[in-house]
Amino acid sequence: DSGVTQTPKHLITATGQRVTLRCSPRSGDLSVYWYQQSLDQGLQFLIHYYNGEERAKGNILERFSAQQFPDLHSELNLSSLELGDSALYFCASSVDGSGLTNYGYTFGSGTRLTVV
Amino acid sequence: GENVEQHPSTLSVQEGDSAVIKCTYSDSASNYFPWYKQELGKGPQLIIDIRSNVGEKKDQRIAVTLNKTAKHFSLHITETQPEDSAVYFCAAVDSSYKLIFGSGTRLLVRP
């Protein structure tokens, strides 16, 4: 157990629907990062939050949004889902905003989203 | 922005042989280079990292080398074992402190 908790583990939904993925960072970590991993693809950065504030955005679609709450958990909202959104979605956490602590990022086990 | 290229995409070795995975990066300001191992159905796990003030780092059978002049870094696994089979990702930190990952190498260790 990495200490980063992602729920749900699996999600199957229809095109056009909206889903919310949840991430609880390791205790003490202030930063949460979201990554998308499509089939046989690498990890594409989506967005970074530090202590409730958005720090950086990657190639995140306008249909996607995220937030980090006062208790530091984060949610990634995906709306108007398309077949191409099917992927593994990972969150990672780190102590500070740089991710350059002793252990870098710690990843959760991911949410597998299937859009049918 | 930072771009990380990783080779090879797949690598098959005999148990006991060595495996080498290479990455290049584009941003000369990058100063942190971690390697992650991803097993089937799991999230990436940090296995070793190196900072720009160091040329080489070892941890048992795993070593990473960094050549800042050439902007490339490599992962070396010696005495490979079947449990080393996984997908390995290199990464580099960009100017906004986020990690940019390579495309991954699928390593298969044949018993």
How would you describe what is shown here?
The complex is a heterodimer of chains A (116) and B (111). With 116 residues, chain A is mainly beta. Chain A has strands spanning 5-7, 10-13, 19-24, 31-37, 44-50, 53-57, 64-68, 74-78, 87-94, 106-107, 111-115. In chain A, the strands form two sheets. In chain A, strands 2, 4, 5, 6, 9, 10 and 11 form a seven-stranded mixed beta sheet that branches. A four-stranded antiparallel beta sheet of chain A has the order 1-3-8-7, with no helix packed on it. By secondary structure, chain B is mostly beta strands. Helix content of chain B is 0%, strand content 57%. Chain B has no helices and eleven strands. In chain B, strands 2, 4, 5, 9, 10 and 11 form a six-stranded mixed beta sheet that branches. In chain B, strands 1-3-8-7-6 form a five-stranded antiparallel beta sheet, with no helix packed on it. In chain B, strand 7 (62-67) and strand 8 form a beta hairpin.
Beta-strand content of chain B: over 45%
Helix content of chain A: under 10%
Rg of chain B (CA only): 13 Å
| Alpha-beta content class of chain B | mainly beta
Radius of gyration of chain A: 13 Å
Helix content of chain B: under 10%
SS summary, helix count of chain A: 0
